[in-house]
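Aspartate racemase, Microlunatus flavus. Tokens?
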Amino acid sequence: MLGGMSWESSAEYYRLANELVRDRLGGLHSAPLVLASVDFADVEAMQSAGRWDEAGALLARAAAGVEAAGAELLVLCTNTMHKVADQVQAAVGVPLLHIADAAAAACTSAGVTTVGLLGTAFTMEQDFYRDRLAAHGSEVLVPSATDRALVHRVIYDELCLGVVREESRQAYREVIARLVAEGAQGVVLGCTEIELLVGPDDSPVPTFATTRLHVEAAVEAALAPELP
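Tokens:
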């Protein structure tokens, strides 16, 4: 696991991985894993300045360290930084499990073909994530510019700091409602921190929680050789 973007959601990755392994294998089983946690302040500064190649190089070095420590599968614990997924994958010899592929598979399984996408401004406005979903057959809707700014601000100013506010939850509910009014059949929570704020009860259509979906796919892939 390559995390720390932010550590609030990376903690969820760690918890979910261990719970899912315990549920699958029983008893005292837990997930054997390596977690490299980077300083998110450094990453955020690179994001804001558009220094994506530099951010990719930072994560690539961290990924190489995870592989050297024995990892056989790489999970990048963030949606936004999948913008540099190819750069990270090129630095290691183990497969990187792409978070958007896990989200798209869940949408397809649920019969949802038009999805609303919530995430950071980078994820909602740039094509690296939307195109990945579209490649799986999803039509992707994003909020208005005003709503995108609100969603982004709450992520960085609140959720990444562990702050969960009821007024922000209500604001997100309203953003989701507007996406549904535009035709969204489901909503991809395309930022791992968003799941700290909203869930299925906050949406009139299915929500796709990318943190859980990503971890579920990772556990499935990791345990597959051991299963009958």
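The beta strands are 2-3, 36-37, 114-118, 139-141, 186-189, 207-209.
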